Amino acid sequence: MWISHAKMGDIRTEEQAKDSNLRRILILGSPGSGKSTLALKLGERLGLEVIHLDRHFWNPGWVQTPIPEWMDKVEELVAGENWIIEGNYSRTLFIRIARADGVIWLDFPRLGCFYRCMKRAVRDFGKSRPDMAPGCLEKVDWGFIRHVWTSRERERPIVESVLEVNEGRIPVLHLKSIRNVNIDAIVGFVKSN
Question: What is the pTM (predicted TM-score) of this model?
Fold first, then answer.
């Protein structure tokens, strides 16, 4: 497990911007794949702002942002020049990928993601996580369990399709095992593309 001290909203310096070719990075993956953790770690190493989609989609008490408002919000979020955006929300993937210049896809087996998600839910039960909107306390119910368990089979074909359409336009780092997550290698990918 990584421990990160990156602050949400940190903006990269001019020197850091010159050191990296990828300035707008999408991190995709199932719940429990480590998107938020990787985003914070990369943000710290590269000096990029980290944007957690959950933090912007959910309102206190787990109230969803209405879809038209959500689409506008995502347009605002991607308008910046330097960012790492983590999250799924397939409805807005086409907006995000149009602005991205790199993708990291954490395409891990369902069971491991499910285990990590349940472990996090138990650990943080009744608390609001830093990558989540204030007032959204961690909970476990059947809707949450179903979402986590079925997310990969639901989202994976959409991600594959969108990446296929964009093949050759932007580099994609497709990681298929948690054992493949090496922050130095990922930073190397970002800097070499």
Answer: 0.86
